[in-house]
Write a structure and sequence with these properties.
Blueprint (H helix, E strand, L loop, with lengths): L12 H10 L8 H14 L3 E5 L2 H11 L7 E5 L4 H8 L4 E5 L21 E4 L11 H11 L2 E5 L7 E2 L2 E2 L6 E5 L12 E5 L5 H8 L5 H5 L19 H11 L2 H18 L1 H5 L12 E2 L6 E3 L3 H13 L15 H6 E3 L6 H5 L2 E3 L8 H16 L1
Helix pairs in contact: 1-8, 2-8, 3-4, 3-6, 9-14
Length: 376
């Protein structure tokens, strides 16, 4: 069976975990955590990066830093993972869903403004498959209406929009280092902070509401409870695992991109024949080969397609069930406008295996079976 995902592994992970143990500093903000933060800051140009226990927790921190309160509204796509909404729902906000673009599966930037009310506090664009939303338009809307922007760039590490790293446009950006992502620490994430005047508050929230970070930098002689917070620090052993991959980020990305391009080129004729649709990458976007998907004709065809691949030892999967159709989505949110594409397009999409180390012969086998299904 060709698995859908295999977590990345470079070979140095266990050596670095051993180093973390030998350093006798395995809790949060050890040497490897600092190395990961520095790597993210250098690679993205963000003012500050803070490694977290998950992208969910990075988004929760962003919600706290945006001062989201009960009764506030947050605009986001329904086609996303539950964490995007949960972070704000936990603060008492209502999730206001708007439709997506059928080409990129990202939030339709032209529908955001119509969803804004006097209660709106933030816009949360989700960069699906590591392909950027139209950030120029989104930032222009946010600035005009004095709204915060929190980028869900869970899938967007190493992706860019107009030459600038995803996660660095909004007030805050959120990365994921879950085992399904291009670079992994098992469970983990990072918060990217654009404005330097927000760094101290972010550190306090992340350190259980204390100014412990300043204490360890020698800026104060004791630390104390300053504000409400929680523990969003990952173990330095997890960070050690991640750093082994960040060191080889370019090679990992190139390996994934090779597979992505093989798929893309192989299915050109099927798309021309009108049998499937391939991913669309806008000219201003540089993606990271996080995902390769095809769009089938409809839900019935997708079900047959996934079953056929499974019978041929290929694990392919569909993706999100739109949040506004879920019980919690109906309880904590509302869909603004008409659901023209969100449900229809989500029912057509199927993801093919794509991971670091997927062999070329495996990719060719998958391609052959896809063609067999559609040319039968």
């Amino acid at each position: 069976m060709i698995r859908f995902n295999v977590p990345p592994y470079t070979g140095k992970e266990m050596d670095y975990i051993k180093q973390a143990v030998e350093n006798q500093k395995i809790c949060g903000d050890g040497d490897f955590t600092k190395k990961c933060n520095a790597w993210i800051e250098e690679k993205t140009g963000t003012t500050k990066a803070l490694l977290t226990t998950s992208c969910t927790h990075a988004t929760e921190m962003a919600a706290l830093l945006c001062d989201i309160k009960p009764g506030d509204e947050v605009i986001l796509p329904s086609y996303t993972f539950v964490s995007t909404a949960d972070a704000f729902v936990l603060r008492g906000a209502k999730a206001v869903f708007v439709d997506i673009r059928p080409d990129t599966m990202n939030i339709d930037e032209n529908l955001i403004e119509a969803a804004i009310t006097e209660k709106t506090k933030a816009i949360v664009p989700v960069h699906y498959a590591g392909v950027s939303c139209e950030m120029d338009k989104i930032m222009e809307i946010a600035e005009r209406h004095n709204l915060k922007v929190v980028e869900d760039a869970a899938q967007g590490v190493m992706s860019e929009y107009k030459g600038k790293a995803l996660g660095t446009f909004g007030d805050f950006g959120c990365f994921s280092f879950h085992e399904t992502k291009n670079f992994s620490m098992g469970e983990g994430g990072a918060l990217l902070i654009r404005d330097k005047d927000m760094i101290e508050e972010a550190e306090i929230i992340r350190e259980k509401g204390t100014n412990r970070a300043k204490y360890f930098r020698g800026q104060i002689d004791k630390y104390t409870w300053i504000d409400a917070g929680s523990s969003y620090l990952p173990s330095d052993m997890n960070a050690a695992y991640l750093f082994a991959q960040l060191e080889l980020a370019d090679a990992i990305t190139a390996d994934r991109m090779k597979t992505w391009k093989m798929y893309y080129e192989a299915f050109e004729e099927l798309e021309k024949a009108g049998k499937i649709e391939r991913p669309f990458i806008p000219a201003d976007c540089k993606h990271n080969a996080h995902m390769f998907y095809l769009k089938c004709k409809d839900l019935e065809e997708r079900s047959r397609f996934i079953k056929f691949l499974g019978e041929n030892d290929i694990l392919a999967v569909f993706h999100y069930i739109p949040l506004h159709t879920a019980p919690a989505g109906q309880k904590f949110g509302r869909f603004n406008g008409e659901d023209v594409y969100t449900t229809k397009e989500s029912e057509r999409l199927v993801r093919l295996p794509l991971y670091y180390g997927l062999k070329e012969e495996q990719t060719e086998y998958i391609i052959g079976k896809v063609k067999e299904f559609y040319n039968a």
